[in-house]
Amino acid sequence: MEPEEVGIIGIGLVGTAIARRMLDAKFVVAGFDIDANRITALRSLGGIGLGSAEDVFRRCRHVILSLPDSKHVHEVLHSAATAIQSTHVLIDTTTGSPEDAAQQWQRCTALGAEYGDATILGSSAQVESGEALVIAGGSARFLRILQQLAAPWSRETVHVGICGSAARLKLVVNHVLGLQRLVLAEGLGLARSCGIDLEVALQILRKSPAAAQVMETKGPQMLRGDFVPRARLKQHLKDVTLIEALGQSCNARLPLADLHRTLLEEAVERGWGELDNSAVFKLFSDDDEPTG
Length: 292
Prior knowledge:
By secondary structure, the protein is of the alpha/beta class. Helices cover 51% and strands 14% of the residues. The chain has helices at 13-24, 36-45, 53-59, 70-79, 98-110, 124-128, 140-150, 165-193, 198-207, 213-217, 219-224, 233-249, 255-269, and strands at residues 5-9, 28-32, 48-49, 62-65, 89-92, 114-121, 132-137, 154-161. The protein has an 8-stranded mixed sheet with strand order 3-2-1-4-5-6-7-8, with helices on both faces. Helix 4 (70-79) links the parallel strand 4 (62-65) and strand 5 (89-92). Helix 8 (165-193) crosses helix 12 (233-249). It is globular. The termini are far apart.
């Protein structure tokens, strides 16, 4: 049998991790990104670099979208509308607005194509190690295809409802996770300010009732000052903006999200937006220089 061919539009941190895992699993991967360097990088991994999103749809019937936000998804679907056919299945891993996901579903349904949101719980590093959790919103057929395609880069795929459901739940998870990361950064900052060795503080936190997975994934990065991006700080600011909008739409009180957004905006203003989201620790340290 010939290997399955899959398209990827958006070859950033997550898109590259997905492509690498799928190539290792003997899929043929054809992709496009507006950044020519990312297309070159895909080719260096053994993938096929194409010249436009439309080219990806013309070549592949299964297409993964890994884009910065809903606006970019809208632009891609608009520009490639003539190439989208009833045979297409679109897997949107973008963290975006749930309402936008529902609109994209309507647009693709009108074209006869299958579309669903498949949001990823985990960083690009976790995708690359196959440890990410995928939550899916869409039809039963969409779920079957997603489970097959996501198997190389995720540990589990969970169906949570109709299209848009995964986007909502992803924002809930990101809200909790982002606040855990912020609290850890502030706590470590407090420990340093009162003269506690940070290695000792993190070790005790990991063993205490306050223990959380973020201490395993982000704590060591904070202590090392290792802010090479696995998930960029500016992207989480975008997520928090979406979280606040979701809260407003359903009359949920989110005072911590408001505070979190203010602190992330400060971090971006100080030049740390391109760093890993663990760089929020720099708000509670004496190091004001962008690093990574």
